[in-house]
Amino acid sequence: MLVKWIRCTVVDRRGFERGQRKWAGLPGEPGFRGQGGGWSRLRPGVAHVFAFWESRTFYDSFMARSHDRLAAAQSGTFKDAQVKLFDHRFDVKTGFEPRFTDADVVRVAHCRVHPDRVENFALMQEKVWNPAMAGSPGMVRGLFGEAPDHEFLVLSMWQSAAEHGKYRAERVERLALRAQTDADVAALAGDVVELEPSWTV
């Protein structure tokens, strides 16, 4: 599965949200699996959208045919758009599905990892971080994705910001020490996204 992550700064909120509803046409596209997103809880005016495709081939075909027509409705409503593509490597918890209806918050972590630490980073994600997240009350599902140039995405869905906050406060520092995260990660950026139900496709 291919994961597309779009982050942008919105300059016309009403126009952006109106345009966001135009993506409701996506389910007719071959290989489309789901899309959702919302507003950053940490950075005012920043929007995140997550889209899921069966494969890169289906995604490339969509980009060549239908994308620009659907995207036209949001033209001029945002700036500083950053788009990243990741290949799904494994689930956090079990049976990841691109559904957004049973979660209120998505936590996204974008890691750039030292080349010689990639295998250790992936192993620690599987053996240390995954079980801890999967065992946290309120954590619904998640995935671990990989992009070229040693970049990784950890996406986790939570029932509420409060549940995610408890996990952060109680576990993260201890887990980071155990997983030697500082030795693996060259750069880390993250955000907490309040999902907008009307953006779910």
Please, could you describe this protein's structure?
This protein has 201 residues and is α+β, with helices and mostly antiparallel strands. The chain contains six helices and eight strands, in the order βαββααββαββααβ. The chain has helices at residues 13-20, 56-65, 67-71, 118-134, 161-179, 181-184; strands at 2-10, 32-40, 46-53, 78-92, 105-113, 139-147, 151-158, 185-195. The chain has an eight-stranded antiparallel β-barrel with strand order 1-3-2-8-5-7-6-4. Helix 4 (118-134) packs across helix 5 (161-179). 31% of the residues are buried.
Main pleated sheet: 8 strands, antiparallel, barrel
| Unreliable segments of 5+ consecutive residues | none
Strand order of the largest sheet: 1-3-2-8-5-7-6-4
Q: Round the mean pLDDT to the nearest integer and report it.
A: 94
Descriptive tags:
201 residues, alpha+beta, 6 helices, 31% helix, globular
Short summary:
This protein is α+β, with helices and mostly antiparallel strands.
List the helices and strands and how they pair.
Blueprint: E1 2-10, H1 13-20, E2 32-40, E3 46-53, H2 56-65, H3 67-71, E4 78-92, E5 105-113, H4 118-134, E6 139-147, E7 151-158, H5 161-179, H6 181-184, E8 185-195
Antiparallel strand pairs: 1-3, 1-4, 2-3, 2-8, 4-6, 5-7, 5-8, 6-7
Helix pairs in contact: 4-5
